[in-house]
Structures are given as structure tokens and as C-alpha cells.
Amino acid sequence: MYTKSYLSHKAPLCGLMLLAISSTASAQRALSTHEFFYVGGKYTGPPGKEVMAGQMYVEVLRPQRVTQKYPIVLVHSSASATLWMGTPDGRPGWADYFLNQGYVVYLPDQPARGRSAWHGSVNSPLKVSIPESRNEQQDTALELFGKWPGAKKHTQWPGEGARKGRMGDPIYDAFYATMLETVSDSTEAPKLFEADAEALLDRIGPAIVLVHSQTGPFGWAIGDGRPIAVKAIVAIEPTGPPFRNAVVNGGNEDEARPWGLTAIPLHYSPPLQSPGDLHPTREEKADGPDLANCWAQGDPPRTLINLQKVPILIVTTEASYHAVYDHCTSKYLTRAGVANTHVYLGDVGIHGNAHYVMVEKNNLEVAAFLHKWISEHVK
């Protein structure tokens, strides 16, 4: 492990993005040490040409005074761990916030992404995680396109002017610069992360796992694999809905998660011989206006036995396309015997957010809501 003591801090500029660990006086007081290490991985390849593959980089922020019983692991989606470290307009990020609440904060880079090495001889080819045009329409300037109910409620993207949230705006460009390619095999990323996350929890002990978007299914998998060590799963708009992608912007409903919530196996009771034993069926009627019809297990439903004792929070923002179908994920868990809390931020007075809520103008208000829920549900 590499460790450095924290003495003082001046936030460096990288392009237009503040990529500092902290940028506020409160963060300066809170941070004691800044560490990193790697977990997982193995040598692979012919003799004399081996490479270390599958390892995961983990950054650690440790406060001067740890007041929370369990650390929090922040698992990024399309970017890298920098997603949590600051906003594209230079404000503190969620890593700062949770550090200041007394959590030890772990920041992994997904295997084969960022500082976790990708090897062309071992890993599947890389693909662009989010095309720029889709990013504008779905995540940063959705109010201009209005492609789903609620999109025009978006008000929280930082910046101003006619190009706000679009290519050419300095804040947008700083945000999009953080987006990284990902492996193209849809099962490779979750398998690699599950193995490395289990190794991480075996090393650090019980922890709260916070996931976002693409890594939402990673949360279900690691909770299933280490149910005692995962003290809570906080899922910010997890990839879904169960079984098939929802049609939001047009296109086809691709079968993406044959195991219900994931593309990789989960433990059900009674056990499955194959994912086809779940007998997915589409409900004939939606649960409400502007909601997608959910896919569900056939009767009788099997239970997700390892997730039943893990506190789970699913968070959906007011303006996001996820508002159309996140209820299906919550409903699937409930029917599989897994209690969970599904919160629409608009219902608790937090308005105007889209999918990348952790970097929007009110990001710390949202973080405070998450901390409150954790404090009430994790003992």
C-alpha cells in the first residue's frame, strides 16, 4: 500500500476539470491520509510473456477522526473514480462529503478501466461507454430534447448560457473528458468486478457499497456474493429494468439481464438450472401513467436468498429517464423476497436532477439525504 499524509492542498487544474481530492477548508481538516492499493488480478499468458490482468485499483481517503462504523465504497459508472472526487465546475464531490461525515472512503477504478489495467491480449475490445450525443440528450441537456416524461424538469446541471450541458461549454467538456471506454463483453465487467470487490471486502471488512448506473447490477452481485460483508447497497439509478432494456428513446428491448437483475448468475431459492427457469413475463399493465410495463418472474417467484438481509436503497431522480422504469427493479426485488426502499428524489423535496446527480448543482444535498438514510438503516 502507498500512503501519504495530508498536510495542505491546492487544487490543481487538469484541463478544465478540478481533479483534486478536496477543494474546501472542511475537506482539508477532515482528510488525514490518502492511500492506494490493488486487489485481485492474476498472471496470465505464455511463459516469459505473462501480464498481470484483472486487478483493481483502489484509492482510500481516511478522515482524521473516523466516526462511522463502516466505510463506504463508491463504485463509478462510465468514468472512473474521479466521478466522486469533484464536479466539472470545481465544487466538492461526494468523496469529500462522506469523508467529512467521518467515513473511510474507498474509490475503486473498475477492472480494465482507468488505473486498473486493460490488456488487449486478455480482455475484450474496448468500446465508447457513452457517445457524446447520447450524453447530451440523456444526461446533461435533456430538458432541450424532452424524449421521456419528466425530462423538461431538469434544472440542476451546472453552468449557464445557450450551450449549457452541451458540447463546447467548458463545464460540459470537462465532464465529458472524464468518460472512459469500457470492455465490450457485457459479462466481463461484472465478473471481474465481483471477484475484485469480494477480494476488497475480504481485505477491508464490512462496508457500505454505493453504485451508480452501469454498476448497479454489480451491487446486486457483490451483495449476493458477500451478504455478511455488505452492510447496505445504495443504488443510484441502477441499470435496469429486470431482464430487458426499457424503450425510452425508441429502439428495441434487448435481452440484457437473463438472471433478472444481472447478466451473471445470482443465488436463487429454489436454485436455477439455467436462467430460463425464471420464466420472465411482461406485465400487461403498467403500474401508473408514464411508467414502463415491467418484466417479472413467472409464478411462483424464486427468492434471492443472499440479498434478503442487506438494507437496500434505490434512488431515482426527478427528470431522469430512469424514472420510467426504476420501479421495476424495486418491484422485482420485493417479489423475490428482498425488502428495499425506492425513493424518487422529487418526493422528498429534491428537484430538478438527472442521471449524473453526483456532479449536479445540488449534489451535496443529495449526499446528505443518502447519509441520513444510511444512518437510519445501517447498524
CATH topology: Rossmann fold
Shape by Cα distribution: globular
Helix and strand content put the structural class at alpha/beta
- Spatially, the strands of the biggest sheet line up as 1-4-7-9-8-12-13-18-19
Strand composition percent: 15-25%
Total strand count, please? Answer: 19
Query: Which oligomeric form is depicted?
Result: single chain
Corresponding CATH superfamily: Alpha/Beta hydrolase fold, catalytic domain
| Mean pLDDT rating | 91
Low-pLDDT windows of residues: 4-27
Distance between the termini: 29 Å
- Report on the biggest sheet: 9 strands, mixed
Number of helices: 8
> In CATH, what is the class?
Alpha Beta
Helix content bin? 10-25%
Succession of helices and strands: EEEHEEEEEHEEHHEHEHEEEEEEHEH
Radius of gyration: 20 Å
CATH level-two architecture: 3-Layer(aba) Sandwich
